Amino acid sequence: MKFSRSEFLKTGILGLGSALVPASSLFSSEKSTPAETLNVGLASYTLRKFNLDETIAVSKRLGLQKIALKSMHMPINASADELKSMAAKVSAAGLQLYGAGVIYMKTQDEVAQAFTYAKNAGIPTIIGVPNHDLLKFVEEQVKSSGIRLAIHNHGPGDDLYRSPDDVYSRVKDLDKRIGLCIDVGHVQRIGQNPAEKLEKYHSRLYDIHLKDVDKNNEQGKPIEIGRGVIDIPAIIKTLKKIGYKETIAIEYEKDEQDPVPGLAESTGYVRAVIKMS
C-alpha cells in the first residue's frame, strides 16, 4: 500500500526539499539529524562516482549518520595506517562507520584479507559474498576476530545466494554472528516478498539494503524509493514489529553521475514512511 500525496503533505516530508537544491550545495558542514525510530543509513555504493570526502559530506547533509563503505571509498588493499586514517575521517565528521562491502570472497586469502581490512578500519560488520566452500573458514575468522558477516543476496543470475533463503540455509548451523544483509530490491526481482523475508530471518538479520525497482521481475531497474513497486510501508511496519535495531542502508543505484537528488528524495520518502507507520 502506498501513501497518498495528501498524506505525505501532512507529514512535512523530511529530506525531499534537498532534492530541489543543487548538488553542490549539499557539500556543506550543515547537518540534518531528524529523530527517527529506525536507523536509516547509507550504502556508499550509491555515491560510487564520488570520492570519500564528498560521500561523507552528502551523508552528513542528509542526516544519514551510519555508513557502510564500498571499496571505491575505502580500498580493500589500503595499508593499516591508511584504513585507520580513513575511518578516523568518517568518525571526525560525526558519522558511524558500521560496515564495509559488498566484499566478494572467492579464496581463503580473500577471506583473510576482508577480515584484516575490517579489523584495521574498526568495522564491526562485513557485508560479503563468500563462496560456499569457504564458509567454515569464514566461521573461524568470525570467531577469532569478533567481526560479523552479513551475506548479501543478489537475485536473478546469482548462483551463490539468489534469495535470503539460500543465505539462511547455508549459515543456520554456523556461528550466529554470520547472518544476512537482505537486499529488498533483489528479493522483489525474483518474485518474493521482502517484508516476509525480513520477518522470517530477523534473528540473523544484520543489515538491509533498501531500494526500489520499477518492475516485479528480473528486468526491474532501480528507481527513486517510493516511485516503484516495492511496498516500502510494509517493510517499515515489519521492521518495527520485529524490533530491528541494525541499519537500514539506503542504496540508490540510479543516476550514478548525479545521484544526490534521487537519494534525497528517497531518504525523505523513507523518513516519512517511518514517521507515519
Protein model, in words:
The protein is 38% helix and 18% strand. By secondary structure, it is an alpha/beta fold. The chain has one domain (5-276): TIM Barrel (Alpha-Beta Barrel). The strands form two sheets. The protein has an eight-stranded parallel β-barrel, surrounded by six helices. Helix 2 (52-61) links the parallel strand 1 and strand 2 (66-69). Helix 4 (108-121) runs parallel beside helix 5 and helix 8 (194-200) packs parallel to helix 9. The termini are close together. Residues 17-26 and 28-35 have low confidence and may be disordered.
What is the gist of this entry?
The chain is α/β, with parallel strands linked by helices. It has helices at 5-11, 52-61, 80-92, 108-121, 135-145, 164-171, 184-189, 194-200, 232-242, 260-276; strands at residues 39-43, 66-69, 96-105, 125-130, 148-152, 178-183, 205-210, 212-213, 222-223, 247-250. β5, α6 and β6 (178-183) form a beta-alpha-beta unit.
